[in-house]
Amino acid sequence: MKRNAGVGSLGNRAPVTAVPVSRWNRTATGFTGFCALAVAFMAVIPFVIGGPAEQPLITLLTFVAMASLWNLLAGFSGLTSFGQQAYIGVGAYALYLVAEHGLNPFGGIAAAAVIAAVVALPVSALVLRLSGGYFAVATLVVAGTFQIIATLSPSVGGTTGVSVPGLAGYGDVLREALTYWATLAVAVASVAGVYLLVRHTFGLDARAVSSDPVAAASSGVRVGRIRLLAYVVAAGGAGAVGALIALQTLYVEPTSIFNIQYSVYMLFMVLIGGMGTIEGPIIGALVLFALQEWLSAYGAWYLVIVGGLAVAATLAASRGLWGFASERFGWSLLPVGYRVRQPPPQ
Amino acid sequence: MNWVNAVIQGMLLGGQYALIACGLSLTFGVMRIVNLAHGDLAVCGAYLGLVLSSALGVPVWVTLPLLLPAAFGVGMALQLLLFGRALRHGALAPVLVTFGLSVMIENLLQVAATSDPRGLNGGSLALASFHITGGITVSWLFLTAFLTACAVLSGLQLSLSRTSWGRKVRAIADDLDTARLVGIRVRPVFATVAGIAVATAALAGAFIGTIGTFDPQTGTDVLIFAFEAVVIGGIGSLWGTLAGGVALGVTQVVVGEVNQAYAVLAVNLLFLAVLTVRPGGLFTSRQAVREIQGQGAAG
What we know:
Chain A is 69% helix and 5% strand.
């Protein structure tokens, strides 16, 4: 995509010169091609390697989806929600309910996403009245309320929970492969969806709202609408992730599906990788995945380290690993901004 | 008579919520930080009280002269080392940093103290109670918690309105840049405010641990209750916070009288209802409403 931006100089002496700017470059084309190949390769893994490779990749891809969606909220739109587990839970229970009514559980993932987004609409009218830290705690209240409602509803098993129905017809191998493909599809859709969304005018508006809502509003950005869109899309995505988690664990139970740990992971991945970039959350997901492999045996220490690194990243390296790399080496694999292609003539 | 009793017990419970909430309210009012680790700091206070009171073999009240200065010091250190830096990194950083701190505290407590629920030794006060009439019995412990909350809130209100420290705090809360311009040294004021916030949290922690039990995960629930009290009461108003706490406590106990399982749900729904009908809370200034809402309502 090419656009001409006017660069003016002070006073009226020099004429305004049109400077060609571009977003896309050769590296980005190459990297997009590489991504397409990587996705194609991952899609055939169940045929080539099978089960042993699927389990870790399912975890990693779930992380990628969670991180990208949280990045849309916090990184691009400035909405630091620590209550996305509310929609993970809604998605998981929605999957159970639609599967109970005879829908194919794998088809139910889309339904779960839609249901989570619909639930998010009235909730957004309340929580988006607050901003910053107050918004953050309000999202915690919403997640806590949803958890209590699930606990008090006998139709979804109350405190004991429910197992996901409709999977009896699948053999273990087929079920795992289908879960893997579904996770891959959700992860790719999350990354690509967020990327396309922030390349659209929405991305510019969202970043304006996040850095200064008053200035954005006075420049004609419809602040409320931008926040609503980001919140509802992230909730729908979280719903799909929740449905995937239900398919992976085959059981939905309130204390684990509404666990605040999901929000801790999202925060960590986005902060470590780099807020407000497309590449950052993917790198963050890889880092969390590696940390989990190494440290999960240490139980609570693992989360102490995750929390500590998140704090350190905020204070010492607020642009994360990818921010550091792109600044140092000038990398831009999936660009969201524009660059001047050649310096204006002197 | 049951209902009257429930309302009285709820009001007394509300005092505890207000005691936790006043630190949260103060930190937001002055530093513009919503400290997401506030509840965990209260639970830390309870654990420290547990360590001190079992080491010395005395009720937790006797350890307060050690506990409160320690908590004050922790608050100052957190402000100087962590929150102050976070404030320089933009509006999102304090939210992210305090949430990360909350995760760290909960899991460090998990490592150090396991997830077994604990209680504090409240001495003879913990079990004593007196009858008013008929079926109404008031526990001395609950009454003490309520009166302590009132004393702390009055003390804070008085020092904010009468002392030179309070004048500086109000000046900073009104306009940080102008306060700097007229020569107020902001760092020490911020540090003392954070110290007071954590000390009141630790005091509340001592009551939480004596009245009920606590474990490393209790902090998040404590934070949510404190936050709800602040929002229901109205941000920036200390007496509003007490009213908010009482509203929460009465709702919780009265609904709990009908069905215990619905008590916390009712409290959350009350909070969401207040947010819908009167987003600024029941007692609040317009300035404060604009602060918390940012420009959320502008678009």
